[in-house]
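Two proteins follow. First one:
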Amino acid sequence: DAFIRKNGALSEHTSASLTDQIASGLAYLHSNKVIHRDLKPGNLLLRRWQDDHGNAQLTVKISDFGVSANVKGEEVAKRSCVGTPWYLAPEVARGAPSSY
């Protein structure tokens, strides 16, 4: 939110790149049986840097694992409703079991 307020809207290419990075990060977490449970813009950190050709790049990092759950054998963690209400998946808000 703050990044966009300061720098303006992201290009389609940049948005796609950041979305791909977030999806890759979530895939890694899920492959290790970790559910973040509070993914929202405020928990995404952006780093601006320049590549070897001087082109501006953005890297996104997923942060704030305070309510995350390692669900190896903890099915209750997949059924509990935790997170910021405005960003909850509808099935989580309804109390339905979540999945990766």
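Second one, unrelated to the first:
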Amino acid sequence: MNDTERTCREEEAEAKGKCSTMTIRYYRHPDDLALIRQLFVEATTQGRGSPIVEGMSSYAPHSRLAFAAAALGITLTALAPSRRISGASRIAPTTVSHLGMFLCLASIVLWIYVCYHRRRIGRAFDVFLDEGLKGELGDVVKSFDLRIMPGGRCVPTGPSAFWVAEEKGEIIGIVGLNKNINPDPGVAEVRRLAVSSNHRGKRVAERLMDAVLDHARMHELRALEFTTSDYNTSARRFYTRMGYEIIKTKDWEGLSLTMMRQELDQDCWQ
């Protein structure tokens, strides 16, 4: 990327900043550490669009079906001996009673199925949060190869970097780019993208990813990759819209993970 193109990008970023109180900046250490860890947990577990809420909600239809089966089963079992049922139907009361008991049993089995899978999702995300907090977000400076400058501002020393989105002094989004995961020297992985549940729908993620993309092109990376769970449908839709494509899936802690990749336009290096 030449100096003219960089200047144009800087002017474009500055123009965006004038239209919004949100700014994208590098991570500051240690001032931001506790705040980004808190945001990571909150964005993962709370609000519409969070992966754990989407995962739990995916079994809502099964829960409703279980409750409906239980209600109908109890009703049939209770009313089977009554004359109203026997008079209004040619079905024997014992048959109605057996049908009611079957529905009750089916609702119990279905509810056990829902509880098992929701507990499995909860355990998997507990591991995800624990790994994130003890790993990259436990030592952001080391994990993302940052140099601490006077005042705590952390600048990249290479392709890896870490950004925060800030609005009126509040950190509302985070994202990292980690070059140390993929052995391919031309590929880096987008990590820990998270947006506060109170600020979703404000293009926070897009602004963060613009910073990632500009940085990746400046360091002449060929591709970016991102991994998410199948339950994080919002993230998959977002990355698909950003130009990422699914390249493979794998199992992790009982969940199916989807790896997505975006090939970068190498003409932008010139």
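SUMMARY FIELD: The chain has two domains: 3-32+142-269, 55-133. The two ends are 5 Å apart (CA to CA).
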